[in-house]
Write a structure and sequence with these properties.
30% helix; 314 residues; 7 helices
């Protein structure tokens, strides 16, 4: 200990005997400090920009309200690209019992998924819990989460909530247990997806039967949303059908494929083969070539087409 004290005293004595040297050191250090502040400022600006880019919800909502389920409705953008990456299905159940849309004389603003009391309910995306409340004549025990991708998700009729308001959650974190609370006629999860306070059809983004999202992104467009929503319900809702079902029209197959718009790259489009159609007639109708259709679908020149068969044509 005495050794270190001697070293310290010697250092102080040296600096005191060389005041000009100490001042020179400080003078040289000053611009370095200013430079570091500039670097910190640039780094902070980049961090803010990155967080804003990754969290578009910050530009969509004007307030943060823990008291009311439905946030103040703000103007819907004409179009908005919603990232569906890093998702988790809110429940393992594949059974839908009620669709989004008009029901019993009122608008049903979500999907009902069959779950049993005590089943784990999980956050669909990462975000922050906005509301944890009980509504006896409506949602029962419910949770609302605002996500970085701009969506808010609602989870209703639960038997127990496992999160608190203002809590940060990651996709897949347990947020509650399945139940039958509130205005409910049987145990199920009422699941909503909202943008700017406006309810969107979850079937546009989630495919519960296949336990997956429809694509990496969903491009919301105000001008086509209603039509896309109806098609999504027909294809992925309760009692829905897959692309291969005979009752799906060409237009529905094409729109359902195009609706998500996963990226800025050209989208694949599909044609449902009708009785009597050939590769030549399909190519002519779709403005492409027989060879292009054959290549896209790995077909041989003499391949026989079947009614209801789905072919990619671009």
């Amino acid at each position: 200990m005495m050794f270190f004290k001697k070293i310290a005293l010697l250092a102080i004595a040296t600096i005191s005997t060389l005041p000009s040297m100490g001042q020179d050191l400080l003078a040289r250090q000053a611009p370095i400090d200013r430079k570091m502040k500039e670097v910190d400022s640039v780094a902070l600006q980049r961090l803010i920009f990155t967080e804003s880019f990754d969290n578009p919800s910050s530009d969509l909502y004007e307030d943060w309200d823990n008291m009311h389920a439905h946030s103040k409705v703000t103007e819907l953008p004409d179009s908005f690209r919603i990232s569906l990456k890093n998702f988790c299905m809110p429940t393992d159940s594949r059974v839908l019992t009620s669709n989004f849309g008009h029901r019993w004389g009122r608008q049903h603003k979500g999907l009902d998924i069959k779950v049993y009391i005590g089943d784990t309910i999980r956050a669909a995306f990462s975000g922050k819990v906005r509301v944890v409340r009980y509504e006896g004549r409506g949602y029962g025990k419910y949770v609302v989460i605002r996500h970085n991708n701009g969506l808010e998700t609602y989870y209703a009729h639960m038997s127990k909530q496992l999160v608190e308001e203002d809590q940060e959650v990651r996709a897949g974190d347990p947020i509650g247990l399945g139940g039958n609370t509130g205005r409910s006629t049987g145990s199920h999860l009422h699941f909503e997806t909202r943008l700017c306070g406006v309810a969107l059809n979850p079937a546009l983004m989630f495919d519960f039967r296949n336990q997956d999202v429809v694509d990496d992104y969903y491009m919301f467009r105000k001008s086509t949303y209603q039509k896309e929503s109806a098609i999504a319900t027909r294809l992925r809702g309760a009692g829905g059908m897959s692309f291969g079902d005979d009752e799906s029209s060409d237009e529905e197959v094409e729109l359902a494929t195009a609706a998500p718009e996963a990226s800025y790259q050209q989208e694949s489009r599909f044609h449902k083969v009708k009785r009597g159609e050939t590769l030549f007639s399909i190519a002519k109708k779709r403005g492409t070539s027989v060879s292009a259709i054959m290549k896209l679908n790995h077909l041989k020149k003499n391949a026989k087409l079947k009614a209801g068969q789905i072919l990619k044509f671009n």
